[in-house]
Amino acid sequence: MTGAAYSVVQTDLKTGDVVAELPVTGIQFTHSLNASGTATVGIPLFAPEADPESLAPGVSGLAILRDGTPVWAGILWALAADIAAGTLVLSASGYHSHYQGRHFVNGWTARSLEQADIIKAWFAYFNADNGIGTDTSLITSTGHKRTTVWTRYELKNAAEAIEELADNIGGFNFRYVPYWVTAGKKVGHRFVMTDRSGVTASHVLTHRVNCNVTGVSYDSTALCTVAYATGADKGNGEKLVGIFENPSLAARMPERVMVGSYTDVKETQTLIDKAQATINAGAVPVAIPELTLYPGQFGPLDFVPGDVTAIDIDAGYVALFDEFVVTECATTVDVNGSESIKLALASKELWSNANPS
Prior knowledge:
The chain is mainly beta. Helix content is 14%, strand content 46%. The strands form four sheets. Strands 1, 2, 3, 4, 5, 6, 7, 12, 13, 17, 18, 19 and 20 form a 13-stranded mixed sheet that branches. A three-stranded mixed sheet has the order 15-14-16. α5 packs antiparallel against α6 (348-354). The relative contact order is 0.15.
């Protein structure tokens, strides 16, 4: 995988049409689990393509190509000009950031419906009203039904609604995948839902063989023996409450309580599910490795956030041979075109327990 050629194109955010190829001085982009992901692109300040009439934050899209194939795409949100250095830095976020600015202004009611159908209905609703044309053709049934009820006065945020639906017991991982609608001329993007258990990667990453593990942190802050999830006001000053406990952990450590607030949840069972997810997420201390892949062995799409890979580390206190979920894949391309890929990971047991499908 040596010698990959990178380029960046500016797109029309509403249509996906390619406006121009940008001359780049450096590229950084991340794929993040169930989140927007980010990108920064440097271009010469005085290049003809640095045109404020065309290249505008909030209006323009960006797509990063690797050997001509889109590997990241999203929305240009900010620019920073360094006049002394003669550079312009473009800062973008993935398409999920569009839905952070969309709200259910008319409310929404869905009772005991397949969650995949709910998601498709949401995108159809926002696509129809000055949207970005998110494609839902790859969304398939999950076998889990949900109830979502919001009044128009709540002005529920769409991105938050998607994240909350994904984060339930029996939820899903999601990402927005860019693709060529018409090669070289039009970029589209698809919303993809996958099982929370992830897809087991065929790679084993071994410290000082095909990667450099730069650090491992151990965190117990999520440990929890009792979880409460509070919901909507019942109208008499009291709130709905869901409770879940972990008696086996309570036998090993003093009581530790976590409380989550979900003010728009109006069903007790949903709150119990959320309390259970909190308990499951706090069942064990977390090992969090960070590593850099050795150059030329892997590409940025070889490790999709949510997928599972095996890590082999033998370094004193850190002795691990276990499976981890990829939570972020960050790629940097310097001015010479050299590619560096870093991964952030989380314990597979933690992730699977917190979000069983």
